[in-house]
């Protein structure tokens, strides 16, 4: 059967489309578009609701898994022997540090848990047993290694320890040769490698060439000091340094010899051919004030041996 080609309706059958009919048709087409959009929106809402339910379920499982992992990690940290200290590495920043001594001091830390081991505990342990520690750096290298870096107090002076039981007159001409101080009696028997640190600790060590340090004589001591003993108070060392700086900056004196009298808590300087006596009883400002007053009335040429600035009401000289 063959279809005939389409032809327009005859005029007598064709009806004109009025405004109301056109409006009704447009409204019907518009409603179809709205229904189509509504179907799409409903589909999107169903997808969003499905995704929200899936997200809640996944969130629950993620939360449960995370809590389980955290509990597992905490359990490992608390009870696992893998995190116990089994190795201690000591980094020596100063050649005079005895690493074997440090290892022996820290031996009590073996078997302790890395997590609960506090740096302050290690620092206190080291400072209690090793006096001349300046700083300590501690690093934990998990699972079982402690790395300890120790810097010792810097050396501030070389020592000559005088034996008070062997009196020996010291002449003025001996100063430049022996480093003796005026009116000092005794025999120098200190080894060449005796030094004192910034905290007053006596150490016996070898110093590299070129590291020149000032010389201090130790006089009037009660018991022969041993290496690593706390020999001189920090306060006395600081006062001594401040006094030397003041003599050089305010009076243009060049200090060549220094001596500390331990039991008397005083110190002497030999500078420009004279000995200057100071102590810890009065302040440095008071003693320097007495020295200024002394210079106003006594010519330098009249002093041949020493100036004693220790007394509060007078200056004694010879």
Description:
- The structure is a single chain.
- With 318 residues, this protein is an alpha/beta fold.
- It has six helices and 13 strands.
- Strands 4, 5, 6, 7, 8, 9, 10, 11, 12 and 13 form a ten-stranded mixed beta sheet that branches. It has a three-stranded mixed beta sheet with strand order 1-3-2, covered by helices on one side.
- Strand 8, helix 5 (234-250) and strand 9 form a beta-alpha-beta unit.
- Residues 167-190 have low confidence and may be disordered.
Total beta strand runs: 13
Q: What composes the largest sheet?
A: 10 strands, mixed
How would you spell out the order of helices and strands?
HEHHEEEHEEEEHEEEHEE
Give the terminus-to-terminus CA distance. 153 Å
- Mean pLDDT reading: 81
Which structural class do you get from the secondary structure elements? alpha/beta
Gyration radius, in Å: 46 Å
Helix tally equals 6
Q: Extract low-pLDDT stretches.
A: 167-190
Quaternary arrangement of the chains shown? Answer: single chain
Shape: elongated
Share in helix: 25-40%
Strand fraction band?
Answer: 15-25%
């Amino acid at each position: 059967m063959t279809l005939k080609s389409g032809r327009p309706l005859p005029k007598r059958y064709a009806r004109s489309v009025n405004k109301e009919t056109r409006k009704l048709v447009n409204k019907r087409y518009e409603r179809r578009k709205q229904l189509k959009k509504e179907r799409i929106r409903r589909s999107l809402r169903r997808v969003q609701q499905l995704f929200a339910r899936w997200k809640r379920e996944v969130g629950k499982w993620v939360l449960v898994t995370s809590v389980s992992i955290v509990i597992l990690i905490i359990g490992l940290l608390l009870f696992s022997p893998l995190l116990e200290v089994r190795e201690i590495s000591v980094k020596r920043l100063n050649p005079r540090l005895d690493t074997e001594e440090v290892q022996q001091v820290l031996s009590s830390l073996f078997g302790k848990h890395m997590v609960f081991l506090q740096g302050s505990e290690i620092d206190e342990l080291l400072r209690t047993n090793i006096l001349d520690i300046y700083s300590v750096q501690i690093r934990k290298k998990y699972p079982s290694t402690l790395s300890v870096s120790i810097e010792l107090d810097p050396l501030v002076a070389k020592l000559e320890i005088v034996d008070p039981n062997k009196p020996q007159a010291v002449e003025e001409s001996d100063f430049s040769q022996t480093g003796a101080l005026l009116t000092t009696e005794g025999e120098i028997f200190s080894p060449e490698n005796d030094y004192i640190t910034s905290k007053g600790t006596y150490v016996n060590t070898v110093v590299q060439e070129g590291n020149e340090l000032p010389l201090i004589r130790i006089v009037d001591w009660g018991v022969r000091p041993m290496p690593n003993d706390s020999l001189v108070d920090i306060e006395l060392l600081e006062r001594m340094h401040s006094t030397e700086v003041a003599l050089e900056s305010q009076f243009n004196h060049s200090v060549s010899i220094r001596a500390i009298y331990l039991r008397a808590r005083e110190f002497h300087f030999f500078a420009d051919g004279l000995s200057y006596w100071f102590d810890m009883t009065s302040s440095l400002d008071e003693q320097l004030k007495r020295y200024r007053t002394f210079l106003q009335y006594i010519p330098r040429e009249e002093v041949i041996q020493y100036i004693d600035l220790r007394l509060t009401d007078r200056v004694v000289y010879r």
